[in-house]
User: What shape does this take?
Amino acid sequence: MTPILFAFSSAFTLGLTGLVFHRVHLLSALLCLEGMMLSLYIALSTWSLGMGSASSSALPLFLLAISACEAGAGLAILVATARTHGTDRLQSLNLLQW
Amino acid sequence: MSPYILAILLFSLGLGTTITFSSTHWLLAWVGLEINTLAMLPLMAQNHHPRAVEAATKYFLIQASGAAVLLFAGVINAWLTGQWDIHQAAHPLPIAIITLALSLKLGLAPLHSWLPEVFQGLNLTTNLILATWQKLAPLALMLQIQPPHSSLLIFLGLMSTLGGGWGGLNQTQLRKILAYSSTAQLGWMILVVQFSPSLTTLAILVYVVTTSATFLTLKLNKATNINMLAISWAKAPALMALTPLVLLSLAGLPPMTGFMPKWLILQELSKQGLPATATITALTALLSLYYYLRLTYAMTLTMFPNNITSTPPWRLPSAQLTLPLAILALAAISLLPLTPAAMALVAL
Assistant: This one.
């Protein structure tokens, strides 16, 4: 396992662990998702650098564009949740049990 | 919602699934899934009330993390094998991660707990899209990957048929029952995906038809729990005579269409030398049968002791088109004789 592979894998795993286990605020969940996306960005850009292929050098930017859209949608949902529930704590998202 | 915006969102839903269908590159498959999720979110949250927004939040978190894990596995695969192609034989570790990520997106047990809650917060039209169209893209990816080793998929399939049957047992909310039913049906598809992908295609087609008929019936009656079904016979008596057959088709009883995929899947499992798996799957289908039968019972087979003036609700003219419901209900009930034609249609 190369150091770069280890670095982005552990960054991604850390983000995923935070998303799964640290369930306090919606904002922190969104930040974890964004961290996962950034580690994938690093992975893609170092992969295309290492391969040296011109055709795959645009892929990291596509990834960044889509993940920016996703982060925007996440923030919109954060605003909507704050307006309907009055807070962004994930504990308060408990209306759908019945 | 403005019709222009609605048109854009619906086109994006179609576009995302189409991109995933036609992609051979993991990044493009991921882009399709993301477009799908992003187009679905405004449709879910269009009624700005707490339950819908909460369902949209849960859907977003689950789908975004599932897609991120999928792309992560694709990147790992690219680092280990140097190629991005979906069809090529890949490293077993990324393929296992991809299988888990897709089962999170599909709502397969043991990763299905989000599905009933998301269904519960949405209206029936959005649920219909969520239960049919949104399953297609992840399932198409599931069909294309080379299975890592058979025990993971069989575990997911058995857990789904069991969990989908078990979860719906004590449920009175129709949307949650249908969510569990979706999990159970997807379990059947996943069981057979490594042996015969064409059977999975057949099963998803039949599932889409039967579940669309069920959702459109519920939408016509504006029913979201069993109590509201109990007086629906007064609104549309002929439809209420047909609906039990649709539900039993969803359960997979013999003269109906829903029996076709279950029959062929059990046959395929026995042919592959997995009689124990086939037996357990057939037995877990009984759990699902219980709640379909309970819906049937509350809807048609009994009449609740209400006084006669309170029983019929107002007969307001419905704005819903009934032609799709008629066609889908007919297809959901009576297509079993077309089994050879259906098999020829989906043969890969």
Observations:
- Chain B has two domains: 1-148, 149-348.
- The two ends of chain B are 41 Å apart (CA to CA).
